[in-house]
Amino acid sequence: MSGLRVFNRLIRSFPFRAVVKIPARLKYTQHQGVKGIRNRKSFFEAQMQAGQRNEDIEDLAEEERESSGYLADMRFLDDRAYDEVAGGAMRITRDIASSQQVLILQPYVKWAAKRQSSPVDIRPEDQLAEASALIHSLPNWQVARALKVPLESLEKKTLFGSGKLVELKEVVAELRQERQLTCLFVSKGTLSFAQKRFLEAEFRLPVMDRYSVVIQILRLHATSAEAKLQVAMAELPYIWAQAKDASVTQTRRQGYTLTDLQKEILRTRERKLRAELDRVRRQRQLLRQKRKQQNYPIVAVVGYTNAGKTSLIKALTVEDALQPKNQLFATLDVTAHAGCLPCNLQVIYMDTVGFMSDLPTGLFECFVATLEDAMLADVIVHVQDLSHPCHASQRSHVEATLRSLAFNIANGDSTASQLPPIINVYNKCDLVSLKAQSSSDPVHHISARAQTGLEPLLNDIEQQILTATGRRKLQMRVPSGGPEMAWLYKNAAVVETTADEKNPERLMMHVVISQRTLDKFKRQFCQ
């Protein structure tokens, strides 16, 4: 089996249905010889042709078996009894076709010195714009009005003071006269059930926080079995937190009361989800071992949501099937995409779910089963939206989240939680002035859409990959058309071949090869 065939088969074996299309420049073309050397049919060409049809059938059958076997246990996610519990706690629904008119309230602490939950360089206007973008990510959801609400503190049991409540009630009454107001979105990470119940009683509207709105978006964008499992798991901590009673007195309950049957429904669902996600992690561990055996480098592309991760991968791989979208959490399924570095070394780019601030880290920790591939990659490319006014805080948030995820994946072992080398990429430079692009940090300024600045980035990725994987560039003299040549094409990255001026029966092959592969070559051909 040829190296490229093994590479394609490995990509198709990913359980998350990676959509991979090898660009034209990666396809193997018949060796036409080198100027000054007699053309001949190489040994490895005959090997590629032999049994190719059987390999295609085996690959297809294997892919179908894995896909059907994995989807067989997904029916337990469709549970009406659970949907009733989730709807009561989160105010979400599986039916998102109905139109929603949403009033957005962005609470913020007036005094910068008292702000603890958000960086001081994030303005309330920026938070409000992100909250509006969340609502616009849902089809048929419209923003009726978006307001900033200054507060002394975000820790009050009622959140808003009595005076502010009167003002907001007047706004709600005005909107109700203009249109059918259906929902109130308080753009805060999480609200306690007591806060939500109080606000719902005051405004007579369903109240959602950022966590529940994001879950609604994730439900919409989760298409693969893995994504659906992880979104379902992310819902449970929120529901349990809402159900926890802060006071058991009969006069005042601070939590969401569940019946014994509902609690058992949640426990059973959680047990099944953990079992399935453990299966996902084991399967991914096997795939990582297989990739390690085949020696394919991994480049994880991470960043804040809507920073342009998918657009960058599309630009680097020339993959027409990728269709980037200008919306939050457009990419939820972790996908693998084949690419090629300037030295002809084949790599796998991993597209990942985007991060977002003012959300509990536990929400993204439920995606560890797939984010683990990114944390264990050879190189991480951190894509950042330079045109965003909160670019610096977004970068800090992603870096902190990566460190937290790496620590959890290493089971709390700080010595084993070191991140791979990180390449910082400032995307969307075509939307900002040259002055805004100036930076003292070692970063790449690119535009994935305009495809500018990609060549220096590819060279940097190549250098980091060679260093991280112990590969090096060598020039090797081998017999033309012999088994040595075939072996190198199969097991190393051939940069170019030139004629040996001293011996017309030999070729000079410029290759990228690891020390382990080089040792194998020496044992087989140099003894």
Architecture overview:
The protein is α/β, with parallel strands linked by helices and 527 residues long. It has 3 domains: 80-110 and 121-244 and 258-266, 3-Layer(aba) Sandwich (Rossmann fold), CATH 3.40.50; 295-468, 3-Layer(aba) Sandwich (Rossmann fold); 470-526, no CATH class. Helix content is 45%, strand content 16%. It has 18 helices and 13 strands. The strands form 3 sheets. It has a 6-stranded mixed β-sheet with strand order 6-7-5-8-9-10, with helices on both faces. The radius of gyration is 27 Å and the shape is elongated. It starts with a helix and ends with a helix. 37% of the residues are buried.
Number of E-state strands? 13
Q: Share of helix among residues?
A: 40-55%
| Broad shape | elongated
The CATH superfamily of the largest domain turns out to be P-loop containing nucleotide triphosphate hydrolases
Provide a count of the helices.
18
Mean pLDDT: 77
- What count of domains describes the coordinates? 3
Q: pLDDT below 50 for ≥5 consecutive residues: which ranges? A: 16-72, 245-254
CATH class category of the largest domain: Alpha Beta
Rg, Å, rounded: 27 Å
Assign the CATH architecture of the largest domain: 3-Layer(aba) Sandwich
Describe the strand arrangement of the main beta sheet, using strand numbers.
Answer: 6-7-5-8-9-10
Give the termini distance in whole angstroms. Answer: 25 Å
Q: Helix- and strand-based class?
A: alpha/beta
CATH structural fold name of the largest domain? Rossmann fold
What's the main sheet like? 6 strands, mixed
Strand content: 15-25%
Pfam families: GTP-bdg_M, GTP-bdg_N, MMR_HSR1
Domain Hflx-type G: 297-469
Coiled coil: 258-290
Keywords: Coiled coil, GTP-binding, Magnesium, Metal-binding, Nucleotide-binding
